[in-house]
Amino acid sequence: MNPNLNLLIGLAMGLNLLSLGSSRLPALIRTMSVQGVILGVMPMLMEHELDWRVVLVALATIAGKGLVIPSLLRRAMRTAQIDRELDPLIGFVPSLLLGAGGAIAALALAHLLPLLPEHADTLLVPGALATVLTGFILLIGRTKAISQVCGYLILENGIYLFGLLLIKAMPLLRCRNFIPCTGYLISLLFVCRIFRPHNNPVHSPVILKLRRGKSVQAGKAGFATARITDDHRGGRIEIPRIFATFLSQDIDLYHLQMFTDSHRGRQPPLHVRG
Amino acid sequence: MIPILEFLLRLACWLVVAPLLPGIINRVKSMVAGRRGPPVLQLYYDLARLWRKDVVMSNLASPMFVILPAVAWVALAGATLLVPLGPAGASLSFRGDVLLFIYLLALARFCTAWAAMETGSAFEGMGSAREVSYAVLAEAAMIAAVLSLCVQTGSMLLVTMLVPTVGASAVLLAAGLFIVLLAENCRVPFDDPNTHLELTMIHEVMVLDHSGPPLAVILHGASVKLLLFAVVLTQAVVPVGNFGSLVACVLLVACVLMVTVGIGLVESLLARFAFRRVPLLLTVAFLLCLFALLVAWKGGEA
Question: Residue A60: its pLDDT value, please?
């Protein structure tokens, strides 16, 4: 149908393999976001006359998948100080081979499916199947929460590709928005959950910084210095009152609260100096 | 008389030009690093020097230690006869010669590995083991590339196979073959040709105990192999055969030069990969060639 479209889908399939082969989180996030941008461009190529709504949806997709979600993920990665190395359950070479096998199987399978004639010569269906499969492999084969989110988002990219098949059959905004939006919501839920520290808050980066007598960023407005009278049984954090309000806006407060929660009992936990 | 003369001339051309390539690579590397570097003809001097020297042999080594490098060299020289040069065609061409080409390369590798193990040194055994285990992956990629060319052109002759098409398939094939070239010739992301003392090296380990003429033969064979891969890569991607002989000649030389400079740049800009990453990169090369095959197959169907 459209050689450019097939080229883009081919690129997206290549990015699938790249995501399976990348061994570091930033690379995985980058791959995922580039794939999102490529997918976002596709509706503009598929429509013959350019509607403003199509452009809007495409721009929204590009912004969401290419900028917002990746930056959220990077932020999560920084805030929680996650180790950048992915530790795979399924090794990189096996998962690459699995992904490639899946892509080939998807190509073969797409021949057998009863497709509409205008879809028969595009890579839409095999691309969607391969992308969904890649997402599954990432979900199963990587242990870190962020890499699982990436897996989920790639899975969702595959669903989006399937959604593009319906571009003619359904009214534009309803079909295009319904399927991906559910995906976005679920993935955002995932992203938000990462911010909860699973590990011991005493070792959270903020606390460690405060222990070393350094200041931490409090909200957007400035830095707070806090003094920790430190020992393992009774911690005591003193924060200038002026920063306390800013702190409450930031994620860092969560760590502080957890820290003080874990020491509740002996001493007043959070002592605000003012 | 004339065919024989042409045959010999062509072989001589391959053998004489080959040592130029490592020199050019080294020149590119030193230019990027801001040094003057060794002369481009350095390998010729080295070969001449080695040829005049005696052979030092281990007590354990059998005569095969000297014979096998020669066999490997002959295999590589034989492989050059099969490779076509643009519109001029190949010296030798028959149905299925591409299989012979692959097997000749494999034979050369087998001989080098065997000769390395002749010394009885555990270090060289390790190098052979590495070389052969990576070759398994590199050869898979090479075979996938050959298959995709076969499917594209529907022929088993190297002369007619190397007629490239333009498109995604050519790009995939070029990328895959370039990685295979780097791996097969022990260039940087896989192996560092400059190291001689590290435990991470692959190819250089195998030739550590060779000296004199056998080492010269091995080094020359390696440069011939590099030229072979550069020429095959060029012709698999650039339609050299479609032009007149003069243009084709210039184009071929320019492209081989480009590949060589590319290798030099890769060596200057990349560090050698961690050992566990090497299979990953080779798998990527295999997949690139596999997808080139798929594109060729699908394109042929449509």
Answer: 85
Task: In whole angstroms, give the CA distance from residue B141 to residue B153.
Answer: 19
Residue of A nearest to B280 (CA): A93
Of A10, A21, A107, the CB nearest to B280: A21
Answer with the one of A168, A194, A220 that is the final residue of a domain: A194
ipTM of model over 0.90: no
Judged by a CB distance cut-off of 8 A, whether residue B275 touches chain A is no
Q: What single letter denotes the amino acid at residue A114?
A: P
Q: How many domains does chain B have?
A: 1
Distance from CA of B186 to the nearest CA of A (A): 21
**How would residue A186 be classed by pLDDT, with cut points 50, 70 and 90?**
low
User: CA-to-CA distance for A161 and A36, rounded, in angstroms?
Assistant: 11
pTM of the model: 0.76
CB contact under 8 A, A97 and B283: yes
Shared-domain flag, residues A139 and A85:
yes
Test mutation, A96, A98, A125, A134, chain B, max B CBs within 10 A: A96
Nearest to B287 among A7, A100, A107 (CB): A100
Mean pLDDT of B126-140: 89
User: How would you classify residue B64: left for phi > 0, otherwise alpha for psi between -120 and 50, otherwise beta?
Assistant: alpha
Closest by Cβ to B287, choosing from A7, A17, A23: A17
pLDDT attached to residue B17: 94
Give the tens place of pLDDT for each residue, A84-130. 888 788 888 899 999 999 998 998 888 888 877 777 777 888 899 99
| Contact yes or no for A191/A183 (Cβ under 8 A) | no
Contact across the interface for B280 and A92, Cβ inside 8 Å: yes
**B294 contacts on A by Cβ (under 8 Å):** 104, 107
Inter-chain Cβ pairs, chain A and chain B, closer than 8 A: 29
Asked whether residue A133 falls in the same domain as residue A59, the answer is: yes
Listed in sequence order, the residues at least 6 apart from A75 whose beta carbon sits closer than 8 Å to its beta carbon are: none
In angstroms, the Cα distances linking B35 to B24, B25, B26, B137, B182 are 14, 13, 10, 36, 24
Among residues A194, A222, A241, the one where a domain terminates is: A194
Smallest CA–CA distance, residue A100 to chain B, in Å, is 7
- How many whole angstroms separate alpha carbon A31 and alpha carbon A18? 7
Which strand (E) or helix (H) includes residue B115?
helix B97-117
A143 and A173: one domain? yes
Q: Check CB contact of B299 with chain A, cutoff 8 Å.
A: no
Which of B283, B291, B294 is facing A93, going by the closest CB pair? Answer: B283
pLDDT at residue B292, rounded to an integer: 87
Cα four-point dihedral sign B4, B8, B11, B13: negative
Q: Is the dihedral of CA B22, B28, B33, B39 positive or negative?
A: positive
Please tell me which residue of chain B has the smallest CA distance to A104: B294
